[in-house]
Amino acid sequence: MKGNTVIHELHQTTRFLSKVVNERLQKHGIFQSQWMILYCIKKFGPMTQTEIWKYLNVEAPTVTRTLTKLERNGWIVRQKGKDQREKIVDLTDKAKSEITEIETTIDTFESEMLKGLSPEECEQLSNLLAKVGR
Q1: By C-alpha distance, which of 84, 83, 67 is closest to 75?
Q2: Cross-sheet strand order for the sheet of 87-91
Q3: Burial 31-43 (b: 16+ CB within 10 A, else e)
Q4: Which residues, other chains included, contact 80 with Cβ-Cβ below 8 Å and sequence gap of 6+?
Q5: C-alpha pair distances (Å), 75 with each of 97, 99, 114
Q6: Maximum alpha-carbon separation in the chain
Q7: I need a labelling partner for 33 at 20 to 30 A (CA). Which of 19, 64, 99, 124 fits?
Q8: How does pLDDT run across 79-110, given as a tens digit for each residue?
Q9: Coil vs helix vs strand at 104
Q10: Which residues are CB-neighbours of 27 under 8 A, at least 6 positions away?
Q11: Nearest to 102 by CA among 37, 15, 45, 58
Q12: Cβ(51)–Cβ(88) under 8 Å?
């Protein structure tokens, strides 16, 4: 392909999706970056900060800042880990009680964004995205 159009299109689509999902998550008082951490902990259970930034492929200081906001707003709690530097992150009762409603918002958003694709195309897109950069 000429002009790197695939990566450009992927980047533009990602920026658009991030903008729209942030608008949708506004009613819950969180942003996409915060949701990604909450989702991560819900999916895998309590995690260290290191496990979170490695899984999300985000720099450690960025995750630390986002965790601080989540903690300040009552979404997560950080506890001491094996040594003094390690912190284990878990969801608060508030997060556990509200996460289903947030997931509904995300599911609705995803359905709307993918409505033009057949189930087979959705699966193919997911498989292709998993291969990009790997």
Answers
A1: 67
A2: 47-48, 87-91, 76-80
A3: ebbbbbbbbbbee
A4: 86, 87, 88
A5: 10, 10, 29
A6: 52
A7: 124
A8: 988 887 888 999 999 999 999 999 999 999 99
A9: helix
A10: 105
A11: 37
A12: no
